[in-house]
Amino acid sequence: MVGFAVVAPKFTPHDQNMKTMRTMSIILMVSRLCLAVEYGSILWHVRKYKKQVLPMMLQIGLNFALAMIYLGITFRFTDHNSNVFMTWYVLAGVEVILTFAIAYIFPVLSFQGTHLMKRIGLLTVIIVGDGIITISKSVVTIVESPDAWNASTIGIVTAAATTIYAVFLIYFDWMKNPYLPKFRQQLWTLLHYPLHLALCLFIQGFTQLVIWTKIFDVFKHLNSSSVLLDNTSLMAKATTKMIVDELQKVVTKFFETYTPQYITTWNTADAALKNISTINDTFWPQVVKYSDTNLDKDYPDEKDYQTFVDAMVGLMSAMENALLETFKINLAKEVDDENKSKGIQQTDSGFESELNEKMWVRFQLIFNYTYIAAGISLILMVSLAVISRTKPWSKWAITRHILFTLLGLSTSLVALIRYSATRSAEYQQSPWMIPTITIVWLIVLVLTHIRNPPPLFFQGSQSLWSRKKNNQQTYDYVMPTEGQTAYKGAPSTQVRSSV
Protein backbone atom coordinates (compact mmCIF):
# COMPACT_ATOMS: atom_id res chain seq x y z
CA MET A 1 0.00 0.00 0.00
CA VAL A 2 2.88 2.35 0.77
CA GLY A 3 4.38 1.50 -2.61
CA PHE A 4 1.14 2.35 -4.41
CA ALA A 5 0.98 5.66 -2.57
CA VAL A 6 4.54 6.50 -3.66
CA VAL A 7 4.03 5.52 -7.30
CA ALA A 8 0.54 7.01 -7.78
CA PRO A 9 1.52 10.72 -8.19
CA LYS A 10 3.71 9.97 -11.24
CA PHE A 11 1.60 7.16 -12.70
CA THR A 12 0.58 8.58 -16.08
CA PRO A 13 0.14 5.89 -18.77
CA HIS A 14 -0.03 8.48 -21.58
CA ASP A 15 3.29 10.04 -20.48
CA GLN A 16 5.20 7.18 -18.92
CA ASN A 17 8.15 7.50 -16.59
CA MET A 18 10.32 4.39 -16.87
CA LYS A 19 11.29 4.26 -13.18
CA THR A 20 7.69 4.73 -12.06
CA MET A 21 6.30 2.01 -14.33
CA ARG A 22 9.05 -0.45 -13.41
CA THR A 23 8.57 0.25 -9.72
CA MET A 24 4.85 -0.40 -10.06
CA SER A 25 5.48 -3.74 -11.75
CA ILE A 26 8.00 -4.77 -9.09
CA ILE A 27 5.53 -3.84 -6.34
CA LEU A 28 2.92 -6.10 -7.94
CA MET A 29 5.50 -8.89 -8.18
CA VAL A 30 6.49 -8.60 -4.51
CA SER A 31 2.85 -8.57 -3.39
CA ARG A 32 2.18 -11.86 -5.22
CA LEU A 33 5.33 -13.44 -3.81
CA CYS A 34 4.17 -12.46 -0.32
CA LEU A 35 0.84 -14.16 -0.97
CA ALA A 36 2.65 -17.26 -2.20
CA VAL A 37 4.72 -17.35 1.01
CA GLU A 38 1.59 -16.92 3.15
CA TYR A 39 -0.17 -19.81 1.42
CA GLY A 40 3.05 -21.81 1.77
CA SER A 41 3.05 -21.29 5.54
CA ILE A 42 -0.55 -22.50 5.68
CA LEU A 43 0.40 -25.54 3.57
CA TRP A 44 3.12 -26.38 6.10
CA HIS A 45 0.61 -26.40 8.95
CA VAL A 46 -1.90 -28.60 7.08
CA ARG A 47 0.69 -30.87 5.46
CA LYS A 48 -0.74 -33.94 7.20
CA TYR A 49 -4.08 -33.45 5.44
CA LYS A 50 -3.29 -34.81 1.99
CA LYS A 51 -6.52 -33.61 0.36
CA GLN A 52 -5.65 -30.00 1.15
CA VAL A 53 -2.23 -30.07 -0.49
CA LEU A 54 -3.48 -29.77 -4.09
CA PRO A 55 -5.63 -26.61 -3.64
CA MET A 56 -2.87 -24.95 -1.62
CA MET A 57 -0.30 -25.80 -4.26
CA LEU A 58 -2.58 -24.45 -6.99
CA GLN A 59 -2.94 -21.17 -5.13
CA ILE A 60 0.79 -20.95 -4.49
CA GLY A 61 1.53 -21.74 -8.12
CA LEU A 62 -0.95 -19.13 -9.33
CA ASN A 63 0.64 -16.38 -7.25
CA PHE A 64 4.18 -17.42 -8.14
CA ALA A 65 3.36 -17.52 -11.87
CA LEU A 66 1.79 -14.07 -11.68
CA ALA A 67 4.85 -12.76 -9.83
CA MET A 68 7.16 -14.03 -12.56
CA ILE A 69 5.00 -12.46 -15.28
CA TYR A 70 5.09 -9.13 -13.45
CA LEU A 71 8.87 -9.47 -13.22
CA GLY A 72 9.11 -10.07 -16.96
CA ILE A 73 6.90 -7.09 -17.71
CA THR A 74 9.21 -4.87 -15.65
CA PHE A 75 11.95 -4.92 -18.28
CA ARG A 76 9.55 -4.08 -21.12
CA PHE A 77 9.26 -0.49 -19.89
CA THR A 78 11.79 1.81 -21.57
CA ASP A 79 12.12 5.53 -22.23
CA HIS A 80 9.19 5.38 -24.66
CA ASN A 81 5.49 4.89 -23.98
CA SER A 82 4.33 1.30 -24.12
CA ASN A 83 0.94 -0.42 -23.96
CA VAL A 84 2.41 -3.31 -21.99
CA PHE A 85 0.98 -1.80 -18.78
CA MET A 86 -2.43 -3.09 -19.93
CA THR A 87 -1.14 -6.56 -19.07
CA TRP A 88 -1.51 -5.60 -15.41
CA TYR A 89 -5.25 -5.22 -15.84
CA VAL A 90 -5.57 -8.48 -17.79
CA LEU A 91 -3.59 -10.36 -15.14
CA ALA A 92 -5.69 -8.86 -12.36
CA GLY A 93 -8.85 -10.12 -14.06
CA VAL A 94 -7.37 -13.57 -14.66
CA GLU A 95 -6.23 -13.74 -11.03
CA VAL A 96 -9.71 -12.93 -9.72
CA ILE A 97 -11.39 -15.50 -11.98
CA LEU A 98 -8.93 -18.29 -11.13
CA THR A 99 -8.96 -17.49 -7.40
CA PHE A 100 -12.75 -17.65 -7.26
CA ALA A 101 -12.77 -20.83 -9.37
CA ILE A 102 -10.32 -22.57 -7.02
CA ALA A 103 -12.30 -21.36 -4.01
CA TYR A 104 -15.51 -22.71 -5.55
CA ILE A 105 -14.04 -26.14 -6.32
CA PHE A 106 -12.06 -26.71 -3.11
CA PRO A 107 -13.91 -26.09 0.20
CA VAL A 108 -10.66 -25.47 2.09
CA LEU A 109 -10.23 -22.21 0.14
CA SER A 110 -13.91 -21.28 0.19
CA PHE A 111 -14.91 -17.80 1.37
CA GLN A 112 -17.92 -19.15 3.26
CA GLY A 113 -17.81 -18.46 6.97
CA THR A 114 -15.22 -15.70 6.44
CA HIS A 115 -15.58 -11.94 6.83
CA LEU A 116 -15.32 -11.32 3.09
CA MET A 117 -18.79 -9.78 2.74
CA LYS A 118 -18.27 -7.56 5.77
CA ARG A 119 -14.93 -6.38 4.40
CA ILE A 120 -16.52 -5.58 1.03
CA GLY A 121 -19.18 -3.62 2.90
CA LEU A 122 -16.49 -1.66 4.74
CA LEU A 123 -14.78 -0.88 1.44
CA THR A 124 -18.09 0.51 0.19
CA VAL A 125 -18.28 2.67 3.31
CA ILE A 126 -14.84 4.08 2.50
CA ILE A 127 -15.91 4.94 -1.06
CA VAL A 128 -19.16 6.58 0.06
CA GLY A 129 -17.37 8.31 2.93
CA ASP A 130 -14.88 9.76 0.47
CA GLY A 131 -17.87 11.48 -1.12
CA ILE A 132 -18.40 13.50 2.04
CA ILE A 133 -14.73 14.53 1.96
CA THR A 134 -14.92 15.65 -1.67
CA ILE A 135 -18.14 17.56 -1.00
CA SER A 136 -16.38 19.31 1.87
CA LYS A 137 -13.55 20.27 -0.49
CA SER A 138 -16.10 21.64 -2.97
CA VAL A 139 -17.70 23.68 -0.20
CA VAL A 140 -14.28 25.09 0.72
CA THR A 141 -13.74 26.07 -2.92
CA ILE A 142 -17.12 27.80 -3.00
CA VAL A 143 -16.54 29.58 0.31
CA GLU A 144 -13.17 30.91 -0.88
CA SER A 145 -14.87 32.58 -3.86
CA PRO A 146 -16.64 35.97 -3.66
CA ASP A 147 -20.36 36.07 -2.78
CA ALA A 148 -20.11 32.51 -1.50
CA TRP A 149 -23.28 31.95 0.47
CA ASN A 150 -26.83 32.51 -0.70
CA ALA A 151 -30.04 30.50 -0.66
CA SER A 152 -29.06 28.59 -3.79
CA THR A 153 -25.66 27.59 -2.41
CA ILE A 154 -27.16 26.38 0.87
CA GLY A 155 -29.68 24.30 -1.06
CA ILE A 156 -26.98 22.80 -3.27
CA VAL A 157 -24.78 21.76 -0.34
CA THR A 158 -27.76 20.36 1.58
CA ALA A 159 -28.91 18.32 -1.42
CA ALA A 160 -25.40 16.95 -2.00
CA ALA A 161 -24.91 15.86 1.61
CA THR A 162 -28.42 14.36 1.72
CA THR A 163 -27.73 12.32 -1.40
CA ILE A 164 -24.53 10.78 -0.03
CA TYR A 165 -26.28 10.00 3.27
CA ALA A 166 -29.21 8.39 1.42
CA VAL A 167 -26.85 6.19 -0.62
CA PHE A 168 -25.18 5.08 2.61
CA LEU A 169 -28.50 4.20 4.30
CA ILE A 170 -29.91 2.41 1.26
CA TYR A 171 -26.84 0.22 0.81
CA PHE A 172 -26.82 -1.02 4.39
CA ASP A 173 -30.60 -1.37 4.53
CA TRP A 174 -30.40 -3.73 1.57
CA MET A 175 -27.22 -5.66 2.48
CA LYS A 176 -28.22 -7.21 5.81
CA ASN A 177 -27.23 -10.82 5.38
CA PRO A 178 -23.49 -11.50 5.74
CA TYR A 179 -23.91 -15.24 5.04
CA LEU A 180 -24.92 -16.54 1.61
CA PRO A 181 -24.54 -19.81 -0.31
CA LYS A 182 -21.26 -20.30 -2.13
CA PHE A 183 -22.23 -19.23 -5.66
CA ARG A 184 -24.39 -16.30 -4.56
CA GLN A 185 -21.64 -15.06 -2.25
CA GLN A 186 -19.09 -15.07 -5.07
CA LEU A 187 -21.50 -13.38 -7.49
CA TRP A 188 -22.34 -10.78 -4.82
CA THR A 189 -18.63 -10.11 -4.29
CA LEU A 190 -17.78 -9.82 -7.99
CA LEU A 191 -20.66 -7.41 -8.65
CA HIS A 192 -19.14 -5.02 -6.12
CA TYR A 193 -16.33 -4.22 -8.55
CA PRO A 194 -18.60 -2.48 -11.11
CA LEU A 195 -20.61 -1.03 -8.23
CA HIS A 196 -17.52 0.59 -6.72
CA LEU A 197 -16.48 1.94 -10.12
CA ALA A 198 -19.95 3.40 -10.65
CA LEU A 199 -20.03 4.87 -7.14
CA CYS A 200 -16.61 6.49 -7.61
CA LEU A 201 -17.70 8.10 -10.89
CA PHE A 202 -21.06 9.11 -9.47
CA ILE A 203 -19.73 10.65 -6.27
CA GLN A 204 -16.78 12.43 -7.89
CA GLY A 205 -18.93 13.79 -10.70
CA PHE A 206 -21.69 14.75 -8.30
CA THR A 207 -19.34 16.86 -6.21
CA GLN A 208 -18.08 18.54 -9.40
CA LEU A 209 -21.67 19.43 -10.27
CA VAL A 210 -21.90 21.20 -6.92
CA ILE A 211 -19.24 23.66 -8.10
CA TRP A 212 -20.74 23.96 -11.59
CA THR A 213 -24.16 24.73 -10.12
CA LYS A 214 -22.58 27.56 -8.15
CA ILE A 215 -20.90 28.82 -11.35
CA PHE A 216 -24.24 28.89 -13.17
CA ASP A 217 -25.72 30.76 -10.21
CA VAL A 218 -22.96 33.38 -10.52
CA PHE A 219 -23.64 33.73 -14.27
CA LYS A 220 -27.34 34.14 -13.58
CA HIS A 221 -26.80 37.01 -11.15
CA LEU A 222 -24.13 38.84 -13.13
CA ASN A 223 -25.02 42.48 -13.69
CA SER A 224 -23.10 44.90 -15.86
CA SER A 225 -24.17 47.79 -13.56
CA SER A 226 -23.95 50.04 -16.61
CA VAL A 227 -26.83 52.33 -17.48
CA LEU A 228 -25.45 52.84 -20.97
CA LEU A 229 -25.00 49.16 -21.86
CA ASP A 230 -28.36 48.16 -20.40
CA ASN A 231 -30.33 50.86 -22.24
CA THR A 232 -30.62 50.52 -26.03
CA SER A 233 -31.91 54.06 -26.50
CA LEU A 234 -28.81 55.48 -24.80
CA MET A 235 -26.56 53.08 -26.71
CA ALA A 236 -28.00 54.36 -30.00
CA LYS A 237 -26.72 57.85 -29.11
CA ALA A 238 -23.34 56.68 -27.82
CA THR A 239 -19.95 56.91 -29.48
CA THR A 240 -17.42 54.12 -29.76
CA LYS A 241 -15.27 55.71 -27.05
CA MET A 242 -18.22 55.76 -24.64
CA ILE A 243 -18.97 52.08 -25.32
CA VAL A 244 -15.33 51.07 -24.84
CA ASP A 245 -15.07 53.06 -21.60
CA GLU A 246 -18.19 51.37 -20.21
CA LEU A 247 -16.97 47.93 -21.21
CA GLN A 248 -13.59 48.70 -19.62
CA LYS A 249 -15.33 49.52 -16.33
CA VAL A 250 -17.37 46.31 -16.44
CA VAL A 251 -14.32 44.14 -17.21
CA THR A 252 -12.17 45.84 -14.57
CA LYS A 253 -14.83 45.35 -11.90
CA PHE A 254 -15.31 41.71 -12.91
CA PHE A 255 -11.57 40.97 -12.84
CA GLU A 256 -11.30 42.58 -9.41
CA THR A 257 -13.81 40.03 -8.15
CA TYR A 258 -12.62 37.06 -10.20
CA THR A 259 -8.94 37.70 -10.82
CA PRO A 260 -7.45 35.95 -13.90
CA GLN A 261 -4.59 33.56 -13.17
CA TYR A 262 -2.91 33.85 -16.57
CA ILE A 263 -1.60 36.82 -18.54
CA THR A 264 -3.32 35.50 -21.68
CA THR A 265 -6.69 36.26 -20.09
CA TRP A 266 -5.73 39.91 -19.53
CA ASN A 267 -4.26 40.17 -23.03
CA THR A 268 -7.40 38.73 -24.62
CA ALA A 269 -9.64 41.22 -22.83
CA ASP A 270 -7.38 44.14 -23.77
CA ALA A 271 -7.22 43.01 -27.41
CA ALA A 272 -11.01 42.73 -27.56
CA LEU A 273 -11.47 46.27 -26.25
CA LYS A 274 -8.90 47.60 -28.73
CA ASN A 275 -10.72 45.93 -31.61
CA ILE A 276 -14.02 47.46 -30.51
CA SER A 277 -12.37 50.89 -30.42
CA THR A 278 -11.80 50.64 -34.21
CA ILE A 279 -15.54 50.47 -34.93
CA ASN A 280 -17.14 53.53 -36.55
CA ASP A 281 -19.46 55.68 -34.39
CA THR A 282 -22.30 55.17 -36.88
CA PHE A 283 -22.35 51.46 -36.06
CA TRP A 284 -24.15 51.76 -32.70
CA PRO A 285 -27.42 53.42 -33.76
CA GLN A 286 -27.57 51.07 -36.74
CA VAL A 287 -27.03 47.91 -34.68
CA VAL A 288 -29.70 49.03 -32.19
CA LYS A 289 -32.12 49.60 -35.04
CA TYR A 290 -31.35 46.19 -36.54
CA SER A 291 -31.90 44.48 -33.19
CA ASP A 292 -35.38 46.06 -33.06
CA THR A 293 -36.49 45.46 -36.67
CA ASN A 294 -34.36 42.46 -37.70
CA LEU A 295 -34.70 43.60 -41.31
CA ASP A 296 -31.97 43.11 -43.91
CA LYS A 297 -32.12 46.77 -44.94
CA ASP A 298 -31.17 47.81 -41.39
CA TYR A 299 -28.19 45.44 -41.21
CA PRO A 300 -25.09 47.37 -39.96
CA ASP A 301 -21.73 47.50 -41.68
CA GLU A 302 -20.65 43.88 -42.10
CA LYS A 303 -16.98 44.45 -41.26
CA ASP A 304 -17.77 46.42 -38.09
CA TYR A 305 -20.40 43.89 -37.09
CA GLN A 306 -17.99 40.97 -37.45
CA THR A 307 -15.34 42.88 -35.50
CA PHE A 308 -17.86 43.53 -32.73
CA VAL A 309 -19.01 39.89 -32.58
CA ASP A 310 -15.45 38.49 -32.52
CA ALA A 311 -14.41 40.99 -29.85
CA MET A 312 -17.40 40.17 -27.62
CA VAL A 313 -16.79 36.43 -28.00
CA GLY A 314 -13.16 36.91 -26.95
CA LEU A 315 -14.17 39.17 -24.08
CA MET A 316 -16.80 36.72 -22.79
CA SER A 317 -14.35 33.81 -23.11
CA ALA A 318 -11.77 35.68 -21.03
CA MET A 319 -14.33 36.56 -18.35
CA GLU A 320 -15.75 33.02 -18.22
CA ASN A 321 -12.27 31.53 -17.96
CA ALA A 322 -11.40 33.88 -15.09
CA LEU A 323 -14.56 32.81 -13.28
CA LEU A 324 -13.95 29.10 -13.84
CA GLU A 325 -10.33 29.40 -12.72
CA THR A 326 -11.53 31.02 -9.49
CA PHE A 327 -13.47 27.82 -8.79
CA LYS A 328 -10.35 25.74 -9.60
CA ILE A 329 -11.61 24.50 -12.96
CA ASN A 330 -8.45 24.96 -14.97
CA LEU A 331 -7.42 23.20 -18.16
CA ALA A 332 -4.76 25.71 -19.24
CA LYS A 333 -1.83 23.32 -18.78
CA GLU A 334 -3.67 20.54 -20.58
CA VAL A 335 -4.44 22.78 -23.59
CA ASP A 336 -0.91 24.18 -23.62
CA ASP A 337 0.69 20.71 -23.52
CA GLU A 338 -1.59 19.50 -26.31
CA ASN A 339 -0.70 22.48 -28.51
CA LYS A 340 3.02 21.97 -27.88
CA SER A 341 2.82 18.28 -28.76
CA LYS A 342 1.09 19.16 -32.04
CA GLY A 343 3.37 22.13 -32.75
CA ILE A 344 0.45 24.57 -32.75
CA GLN A 345 1.15 28.23 -32.00
CA GLN A 346 -1.87 30.30 -31.00
CA THR A 347 -2.59 33.92 -30.22
CA ASP A 348 -3.75 34.78 -26.72
CA SER A 349 -7.35 35.17 -27.87
CA GLY A 350 -7.20 31.86 -29.76
CA PHE A 351 -5.82 30.12 -26.68
CA GLU A 352 -8.55 31.57 -24.43
CA SER A 353 -11.22 30.58 -26.94
CA GLU A 354 -9.99 26.98 -27.13
CA LEU A 355 -9.61 26.84 -23.35
CA ASN A 356 -13.17 28.06 -22.88
CA GLU A 357 -14.51 25.51 -25.35
CA LYS A 358 -12.69 22.62 -23.67
CA MET A 359 -13.95 23.67 -20.24
CA TRP A 360 -17.56 23.51 -21.41
CA VAL A 361 -16.93 20.19 -23.15
CA ARG A 362 -15.50 18.90 -19.85
CA PHE A 363 -18.63 20.05 -18.01
CA GLN A 364 -20.83 18.19 -20.50
CA LEU A 365 -18.74 15.05 -19.93
CA ILE A 366 -19.09 15.39 -16.14
CA PHE A 367 -22.85 15.91 -16.43
CA ASN A 368 -23.29 12.85 -18.64
CA TYR A 369 -21.22 10.37 -16.64
CA THR A 370 -22.61 11.59 -13.31
CA TYR A 371 -26.20 10.84 -14.28
CA ILE A 372 -25.26 7.59 -16.03
CA ALA A 373 -23.16 6.41 -13.07
CA ALA A 374 -25.90 7.40 -10.60
CA GLY A 375 -28.43 5.25 -12.43
CA ILE A 376 -26.03 2.33 -12.86
CA SER A 377 -25.13 2.48 -9.15
CA LEU A 378 -28.80 2.16 -8.21
CA ILE A 379 -29.39 -0.71 -10.67
CA LEU A 380 -26.33 -2.61 -9.38
CA MET A 381 -27.42 -2.09 -5.78
CA VAL A 382 -30.83 -3.54 -6.69
CA SER A 383 -29.06 -6.55 -8.24
CA LEU A 384 -27.03 -7.06 -5.07
CA ALA A 385 -30.18 -6.79 -2.95
CA VAL A 386 -31.86 -9.47 -5.08
CA ILE A 387 -28.84 -11.77 -4.77
CA SER A 388 -28.56 -11.34 -0.99
CA ARG A 389 -32.30 -11.70 -0.25
CA THR A 390 -33.08 -14.80 1.85
CA LYS A 391 -36.77 -14.29 2.70
CA PRO A 392 -39.63 -15.16 0.29
CA TRP A 393 -40.60 -12.63 -2.35
CA SER A 394 -43.90 -10.83 -1.84
CA LYS A 395 -45.77 -8.90 -4.52
CA TRP A 396 -44.83 -5.61 -2.86
CA ALA A 397 -41.14 -6.56 -2.67
CA ILE A 398 -41.11 -7.45 -6.37
CA THR A 399 -42.92 -4.21 -7.25
CA ARG A 400 -40.49 -2.12 -5.20
CA HIS A 401 -37.42 -3.61 -6.82
CA ILE A 402 -38.91 -3.09 -10.28
CA LEU A 403 -39.58 0.55 -9.37
CA PHE A 404 -36.02 0.95 -8.11
CA THR A 405 -34.65 -0.47 -11.37
CA LEU A 406 -36.85 1.85 -13.45
CA LEU A 407 -35.71 4.83 -11.37
CA GLY A 408 -32.08 3.90 -11.99
CA LEU A 409 -32.71 3.49 -15.71
CA SER A 410 -34.55 6.82 -15.89
CA THR A 411 -31.73 8.60 -14.08
CA SER A 412 -29.16 7.30 -16.56
CA LEU A 413 -31.34 8.28 -19.52
CA VAL A 414 -31.33 11.93 -18.39
CA ALA A 415 -27.91 12.13 -20.07
CA LEU A 416 -29.70 11.85 -23.43
CA ILE A 417 -30.84 15.44 -22.98
CA ARG A 418 -27.48 16.45 -24.48
CA TYR A 419 -28.94 15.78 -27.93
CA SER A 420 -31.24 18.77 -27.50
CA ALA A 421 -28.97 21.79 -27.05
CA THR A 422 -31.78 24.12 -25.94
CA ARG A 423 -33.35 21.80 -23.37
CA SER A 424 -29.93 20.70 -22.17
CA ALA A 425 -28.86 24.30 -21.48
CA GLU A 426 -32.17 25.09 -19.77
CA TYR A 427 -31.95 22.07 -17.48
CA GLN A 428 -28.26 22.38 -16.66
CA GLN A 429 -28.61 26.06 -15.76
CA SER A 430 -31.73 25.46 -13.68
CA PRO A 431 -31.62 24.82 -9.89
CA TRP A 432 -32.71 21.19 -10.45
CA MET A 433 -29.50 19.62 -11.74
CA ILE A 434 -28.48 18.28 -8.31
CA PRO A 435 -31.87 18.04 -6.49
CA THR A 436 -33.16 15.70 -9.22
CA ILE A 437 -30.63 13.04 -8.21
CA THR A 438 -31.34 13.73 -4.53
CA ILE A 439 -35.08 13.21 -5.03
CA VAL A 440 -34.49 9.87 -6.78
CA TRP A 441 -32.42 8.50 -3.90
CA LEU A 442 -34.87 9.83 -1.30
CA ILE A 443 -37.77 8.12 -3.10
CA VAL A 444 -35.81 4.86 -3.00
CA LEU A 445 -35.07 5.35 0.70
CA VAL A 446 -38.73 6.02 1.57
CA LEU A 447 -40.02 3.06 -0.46
CA THR A 448 -37.43 0.83 1.20
CA HIS A 449 -38.94 1.53 4.61
CA ILE A 450 -42.58 1.11 3.58
CA ARG A 451 -42.98 -2.45 4.83
CA ASN A 452 -46.71 -2.83 4.12
CA PRO A 453 -47.85 -2.40 0.50
CA PRO A 454 -50.50 0.23 -0.26
CA PRO A 455 -54.01 -1.37 -0.07
CA LEU A 456 -54.97 0.61 -3.19
CA PHE A 457 -52.78 -1.64 -5.34
CA PHE A 458 -52.64 -4.90 -3.35
CA GLN A 459 -55.95 -6.38 -2.26
CA GLY A 460 -56.11 -7.52 1.34
CA SER A 461 -52.91 -5.77 2.43
CA GLN A 462 -52.73 -3.75 5.62
CA SER A 463 -52.92 0.02 5.73
CA LEU A 464 -49.67 1.97 5.69
CA TRP A 465 -50.52 3.30 9.15
CA SER A 466 -51.72 0.03 10.73
CA ARG A 467 -49.60 -2.11 13.01
CA LYS A 468 -49.52 -5.83 13.37
CA LYS A 469 -51.62 -7.03 16.30
CA ASN A 470 -49.14 -9.66 17.32
CA ASN A 471 -45.57 -9.05 18.39
CA GLN A 472 -43.94 -10.65 15.37
CA GLN A 473 -40.87 -8.91 14.03
CA THR A 474 -41.19 -7.38 10.55
CA TYR A 475 -37.46 -7.75 9.91
CA ASP A 476 -35.92 -11.01 8.85
CA TYR A 477 -32.94 -11.56 11.08
CA VAL A 478 -30.67 -14.13 9.40
CA MET A 479 -28.31 -15.77 11.85
CA PRO A 480 -25.34 -17.98 10.96
CA THR A 481 -25.83 -21.70 11.38
CA GLU A 482 -24.19 -23.66 14.14
CA GLY A 483 -21.73 -25.10 11.69
CA GLN A 484 -20.56 -21.61 10.72
CA THR A 485 -19.92 -20.49 14.30
CA ALA A 486 -18.89 -23.72 16.03
CA TYR A 487 -15.36 -24.06 17.35
CA LYS A 488 -13.36 -26.36 15.07
CA GLY A 489 -10.64 -27.21 17.60
CA ALA A 490 -10.53 -29.90 20.26
CA PRO A 491 -13.81 -31.66 21.18
CA SER A 492 -15.55 -30.53 24.33
CA THR A 493 -14.69 -33.79 26.08
CA GLN A 494 -11.01 -32.91 25.83
CA VAL A 495 -11.36 -29.45 27.34
CA ARG A 496 -10.32 -29.39 30.98
CA SER A 497 -10.81 -26.65 33.52
CA SER A 498 -7.75 -24.65 34.34
CA VAL A 499 -8.96 -24.00 37.88
List the helices and strands and how they pair.
Blueprint: H1 2-7, H2 18-45, H3 53-74, H4 86-105, H5 116-144, H6 151-174, H7 182-220, H8 227-230, H9 232-236, H10 240-257, H11 263-276, H12 283-293, H13 302-326, H14 332-342, H15 348-388, H16 395-413, H17 421-428, H18 435-448, H19 482-485
Helix pairs in contact: 2-3, 3-4, 5-6, 5-7, 6-7, 6-18, 7-15, 10-11, 11-13, 11-15, 13-15, 15-16, 16-18
Transmembrane segments: 26-46, 53-73, 85-109, 121-143, 149-172, 193-212, 366-387, 399-420, 432-450
Keywords: Membrane, Transmembrane, Transmembrane helix
Put the structure in a nutshell.
The chain has helices spanning 2-7, 18-45, 53-74, 86-105, 116-144, 151-174, 182-220, 227-230, 232-236, 240-257, 263-276, 283-293, 302-326, 332-342, 348-388, 395-413, 421-428, 435-448, 482-485.
Task: Describe what this molecule looks like in 3D.
There is one protein chain. By secondary structure, this protein is mostly helical. The protein has 19 helices and no strands. It has helices at 2-7, 18-45, 53-74, 86-105, 116-144, 151-174, 182-220, 227-230, 232-236, 240-257, 263-276, 283-293, 302-326, 332-342, 348-388, 395-413, 421-428, 435-448, 482-485. The longest helix has 41 residues, at 348-388. The radius of gyration is 31 Å and the shape is elongated. The chain starts with a helix and ends in a 14-residue tail after the last helix. The model is unreliable at 464-479 and 485-499 (pLDDT under 50).
